[in-house]
Amino acid sequence: MIIAAMTNTSVAIAGGAVRLADWGVMRAQGEEAAKFLHGQLTQDTVLQTAEQGRLAGYCSAKGRLLALMLVFKRNADELLLALPAELLPPTLKRLSMFVLRAKCKLADASADLALWGLAGEAARSSLGNAAPAAVWGVAQLGTALVMRVPDALVEGVAVPRHVLLQPADAAAPALPALSTDTWQWLEIQAGLAWVRSATVEQFVPQMINLELLGGVNFQKGCYPGQEVVARSQYRGTVKRRTLQFALQGGAAAQVGQDIFHSADAEQPAGLVAAVGSHEGQVLLLAEVKLAALEDGSLHLGSAGGPLLAPRALPYAIAEPQ
């Protein structure tokens, strides 16, 4: 089935591995580490087991995302948080301010641990029976941890994806090399955009579809911004969502760039959240006003800028109430 689907995207579909050099890892250690993070993140880390990963958001008091991260629970007293390296220092500093008397020590573990992105059937086969079957599942492979992350939907083919967290001095996975751009292109086709420096405090979790990806637990206790997030969910006030687009005309884009509607040259209608390219195709995930999709068109940078052609996400978004 995979072979039959291969076209000009064959490399991405067949798969490989890429070192996510622009990511870092934070370590939370201590008998109250899980409890502390439980009170800070959008996810339940107290009931989390070693076989469960978490996609979690860290919000301001206003419910705006300061960072997104992958949470691994190595054991009851140690959790590892993987996130874009540019956001690790401010996130570590801010979390540390709230540790107070909790028996939890936070530290930057990026020098000790490396994160790899694994994609495609070749990658899944290389993991063998240890490959987690469910999204956000985690398995231990010797000194490494592997987490299943959402599949990319490429030309109707579900491309399995995993992230591998291993010692920095461990050998690279024995897989074909993928480029960072191709990995990001696959991330976009999984509908997953990470908070970056240019988008800090730009989104409440629902604007970036975090709850649709399993990144918000609405049954857990309080965390910073929890009231705003819950109100957005239960009062149907989400009027902006992150959608997928193809950028036309061979133009370039960058995270944080404004998007405009063809009928309004003054007021931005959205913001670029993620960019990826593969073999000349540039894809975006952009947070936009849902009302802007009713007529007209969306453009990058200005109302007369490069056209953004809407594409389907791999999951459904409910209509605003």
Description:
There is one protein chain. By secondary structure, the protein is an alpha+beta fold. It has 2 domains: 1-178, Gyrase A, domain 2; 239-311, Beta Barrel (Elongation Factor Tu (Ef-tu), domain 3). Helices cover 16% and strands 34% of the residues. The chain has 7 helices and 16 strands. The chain has a 6-stranded antiparallel barrel. The protein starts with a helix and ends in a 10-residue tail after the last strand. The model is unreliable at 1-8 (pLDDT under 50).
List keywords for this structure.
single chain, 321 residues, Elongation Factor Tu (Ef-tu), domain 3, five-stranded antiparallel beta sheet, 16% helix, 34% strand, disordered N terminus
Summarize, please.
This protein is 16% helix and 34% strand.
Instruction: Give Rg in angstroms.
Output: 19 Å
Remind me, CATH topology of the largest domain?
Gyrase A, domain 2
The chain-level mean pLDDT equals 92
Strand order across the largest sheet: 11-14-13-12-15-16
Spans where pLDDT lies below 50 across 5 or more residues:
1-8
Shape: globular
Major sheet details: 6 strands, antiparallel, barrel
Distance between the termini: 40 Å
Helix content range: 10-25%
